[in-house]
Each structure stands twice: as C-alpha cells, then as structure tokens.
Amino acid sequence: MKAAIVIFIAILLFCCVIPASHAQSIVGKWQLVKQTSCLEEETTLSDTTMEEVMDDMKSMSGATPQVLILKEKNLAEETTKIASRRQSYNSKAFMYRFTGDALHFLDKKSHIILESFTVEKFDADSLIISNAARACETKVFVRIK
Question: What is the pLDDT of residues 12-35, one digit of tens each?
Fold first, then answer.
C-alpha cells in the first residue's frame, strides 16, 4: 500500500514538473516598439489634421526607447534609455502580476493595481498587451535580453 502511494506521488510530481519546466517566463528586458492609442478611433478630424496631431504627439514623446524590465519576485522597472550610454534615466519601480492572459502593474508599497492589461500575444521574443479598460490602446514589446 505504501509503495503504491509513493509511486502515485512520484507520477503526480513528474506530471506537474515537466509542463512547468517548459512554460515561458516573462522575466527579462522588453523594449516598447509600437504603441497605439484610442485617439485614432475616437476623433472626427480630417485625415490630414489627424496625422498632424499624431506627429506632434510622437515628437513630444522623444526617440529614446522605453524598456520594461520584469524581474524575479514580481518586481519591475520601467526606464527610458539614453541613446549613447549604458545608463538609463526616468526610472520607475513597481510590481507586476502575470497570469498568462493578464498583466497587472501594482504599486510597490500598497500592492494596489495601477493598470491592467490583457495579453494578446506572448512568446519567447514578443509581448503584445492591450489596456483592459481601453482595448484600443495596445503596446507591442520585443525581448532584448
């Protein structure tokens, strides 16, 4: 009887460990490569006026890449890289919770959800998320490390 229980536990552990070892980890450095907003869908401006507004908004954001660093223990950091240096500036630390189909950003001290995103696509080198409150806002990231 004891041997049967030991074999059952061993089989159960084997079945649980193999799938878990093949699961992808979201931990790493992710660079924002594309971002869309709801402004494109909600305006009634002409195409040329809309393009001018979008160009103005893009020029204000700057050309420096934004990097999202997702670390172990659900710690995260968002940075803006300086183009010619290894250092970053405008660093913001927070926590995250990843469930596979959702990504939540939390306040580091209170653990209150600041923003929630629906995961549209997640694989080894890309992550596409859309804002849970405004599905028309999407962010496309590529893994850089």
Answer: 555 544 444 346 799 999 999 998
